[in-house]
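for the writeup, i need someone to sanity check this before i put it in the appendix. the sequnce is what the collaborator sent (i think, or maybe the updated version? ugh). structure was predicted straight from it, no edits. if anything looks off just tell me and ill rerun, i have time this weekend
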Amino acid sequence: MGVRDRMFLILMYDLGARISEVLGMKLLDLRFGKTPTIGVPGKGGKYRVVPIMEITSQYLQEYMTLYYKDAPLLSEQTLFYTSTHGEIHPLSDRRIRYMIDDYGAKARKVCIEIPENVYPHMFRHPYLRHNAS
């Protein structure tokens, strides 16, 4: 589960994406090539293709090996899921918010600079600053 959570957070940061955008990603949105990209199903039905960092591509390939070893890459299967009693379910917005809050609290114990309230939109700010022209 830590690998899944890490991958989710990496994508939120690298893409500057909203929770709903990452939750909406499917295997067919991934492109591993010379320039790795991910199709992001955005707000209002908009779809954009975004290049990802090489390190993100490496983490994503590790994630795919663990969670989708035999799945076809052009599948409509959701990229992130949870398994309860052997049944696969899509992750929920609520679960991601809980995860971010939980990791924020754990990080705050070792780094006092972590704010008291860590929330999903915080992942969009660094992306926008690092990718501003």
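The radius of gyration is 15 Å. The CA atoms of residues 103 and 118 lie 9 Å apart.
thx in advance!!
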